[in-house]
Amino acid sequence: MGLLDGLILTSSLSFLAYGISFFITPHMKNEFIRFGLGRLGMLIAILEIIGAIGLLVGLWINAILVISSGGLALLMFMGIIVRLKVKDSLWVSLPALFFLVLNSYIFAVSINVYLD
Predict the structure, then answer these.
(1) Domain residue spans in the chain?
(2) Whole-model pTM?
(3) Of 113 and 77, which is predicted with more confidence?
């Protein structure tokens, strides 16, 4: 397994865990309410799960990898905007920043492969 594959698996498993946790723990629902996004929580969780599955499929189909990593990077960019809006600390915002950078990297590498 190469570095990119490891990064894809890391991101995919993390987003699967985050997305599924929305449906099984009250903490994630409460976080979306705190963000002022209570009505969008389920949609965002589903997008995280779809993106995570897309990353896994992207191990074999690069176009799906491009779409999934780009979508998750955009989702994390918006997550950072929301965290700035609610005045979360940098420490609390670090996971969103980490996954923004990680998925942006996956996107950049996969788009270069797609365009070659």
Answers:
(1) 3-111
(2) 0.93
(3) 77
